[in-house]
Amino acid sequence: MSKTFIVADSIGYLTSDYVGCNKEYLEIVPLTAHIGPHDFVDDLAETKRFYEILMSTKERPSTSQPPIAAFKKVFEEKLSLGYEIVCITISSKFSGTYNSALTAANEVGKDKIYVLDSKAIVGAETYLIKYAVQKAREGEPAKKIFEELTGMVPRLKLYFVPDSLEFLHRGGRIGGAAALFGSILQIKPVLTMVDGAIEVVEKIRTFNKAFEKLYELIPDDAVWAGVVEFYARDAAVKMQAKLTEKLQRNDIEIYSAGPVIGSHIGPGALGTVYLAKD
């Protein structure tokens, strides 16, 4: 049986219980966020403190990718134990994390390390990590897992509505939504990620109508679906209930965005995510 180990950055925002139960197959290399004198390891445990400080100050948040050395340390340790490695990262158009991981892999043992650009953020990346961990548990070779994940990336669709475009704009991650900035006060745009970059789906006037659009964008035949929230739990619970009824399934989970993604998209945003049929 093959020995495969999964390394991922923190953008999947997995619960501590999940990470603890899968520590034989998974290790997280976290990013970090900063607001003035406050530093935050990118973890769900820091989410409440992060958003409370973010909403109480005019300080702009900033983020830092993991250093190459952080990935090298994990890679070297797992390779010494006989593992092959699949490493999953946030979209390379959103962060330099993928490049850090790829550089580390090339320096340590690129023939046994497969680095995946998820072209995604929380929700979609979360699904990829959990899928990879399950396959590692089942003894699937790293190369096969990587190939399966690569095939899933273009089938994963994320849609979200920011409460404000301010955070995307000042963080430089606004992508194709840049044209919206002049009318920021008048719209609640539905955004998506296309090949890892943010693009506009539709310009909508109110949050309620944008909420309905997020719901409508999930097809009835979705293989998997979930809800992503950025300190917008009440709206997320409402969306979860609607999707549970629409899709007639009880596995619709809510994924919470922590400090790093919260720095770029801001509080109050809501999203839906799904895996399309092959």
UniProtKB/TrEMBL annotation:
One Pfam family named in its UniProt record: DegV
Q: SUPFAM superfamilies, from UniProt?
A: DAK1/DegV-like (SSF82549)
Keyword Hydrolase on entry = no
Q: Name one GO molecular function term.
A: lipid binding
The record, for PROSITE patterns, names:
DEGV (PS51482)
Query: Taxonomically, which superkingdom?
Result: Bacteria
Instruction: Show the Gene3D superfamilies listed in the entry.
Output: 3.30.1180.10, 3.40.50.10170
Q: Does the keyword ATP-binding apply?
A: no
Keywords in alphabetical order: Lipid-binding
PANTHER family registered for this protein in UniProt: DEGV DOMAIN-CONTAINING PROTEIN DR_1986-RELATED (PTHR33434), FATTY ACID-BINDING PROTEIN TM_1468 (PTHR33434:SF2)
**Record's protein name:** DegV family protein
